[in-house]
Amino acid sequence: MTQQTSDRTGLPNLIDRVKQFIPARFRRDAVVVPVVRLSGVIGAVTPLRPGLTLAGVARTLERAFATRHAKAVALVINSPGGSPVQSRQIYLRIRQLAAEKKLPVLVFVEDVAASGGYMIACAGDEIFCDPSSILGSIGVVGGSFGFQDLLKRIGVERRLYTAGEHKAMLDPFLPEDPDDVARLKALQREIHAIFIALVKGSRGARLKDTDDVLFTGEYWAGERSVSLGLADKIGDLRSTLRERYGEKVLTPVIAPASGMLAGLLGRKSPGAGALAAFDGIGGLPDELISALETRAIWAKFGF
């Protein structure tokens, strides 16, 4: 009788001792909320300046949602926007994974979640932000330059051959055609309508103002964004998750996979494979333009 009692009390002690050697996030009693950072301009991929694309973040998102014992997935977003296609594809993949794994998605906005960045933020069941965060810019923008007068001054003749009436639409070396501008604006309105529908479908009754206010392309700081229903609360990741899941909540950051061999081959980014296309310094002007465009997008929001 004494031996049986000893065995029963010894087993729990043995289990407790074994638990000490098991990483915390693999224990059944652990509360885990994996964290994925989505930062940068969306879709602007060049050899030396990769941006956010579905191809670049899909595997990371899948790993986050597959984390054992996860109670939710946290996304930390810091993006001024970019490609509407890549923004929507990332949004859709997040929602697909959330439905498959039956996990809530908590979004935390850092400096900016604007334009396409806000579209991705809408994948969250809840959106948290800092009082100084910038959210919104629900609109579509496109721009170019006109060089036709410059060509005349320096004595360069433009020669362009096309098959298709509108193939050279908005060519920066030709005078601007009002019909081309009208076609572009019609396209932008179509994309804008898709963006608006996505925001309404995601935020629903939480939106607190009219279309004339919310969808003009304007953007707001955190407190105002909450009052408009574009975000749910002011809050940071650490404090919010501890308040919701307890002081011992584990928040492993799920980073893109990168092996030693990939680093040696210069393939740390989705666009790195295009380095082979460089011929001497021939690619540098494109990189410079890309850098300037990226800087201009961030500068729009004061960063």
Question: Can you give a write-up of this model?
Answer:
This protein is α/β, with parallel strands linked by helices and 303 residues long. It has helices at 2-19, 54-65, 84-101, 116-121, 148-153, 178-203, 211-214, 222-228, 237-245, 260-264, 284-299, and strands spanning 35-39, 73-79, 105-114, 126-129, 134-136, 219-221, 233-234. The protein has eleven helices and seven strands. Strands 1, 2, 3, 4, 5, 6 and 7 form a seven-stranded mixed sheet that branches. β3, α4 and β4 form a beta-alpha-beta unit. α2 packs parallel to α3. The longest helix is centred in the middle third of the chain and has 26 residues, at 178-203. The termini are far apart.
Distance between the termini: 74 Å
**Do you know the CATH architecture of the largest domain?**
Alpha-Beta Complex
CATH topological fold name of the largest domain: 2-enoyl-CoA Hydratase, Chain A, domain 1
Per CATH, the superfamily of the largest domain is: 2-enoyl-CoA Hydratase, Chain A, domain 1
Q: Provide the low-confidence segments as ranges.
A: 260-283
Helix and strand pattern = HEHEHEHEEHHHEHEHHH
Class from secondary-structure proportions: alpha/beta
| Main β-sheet description | 7 strands, mixed
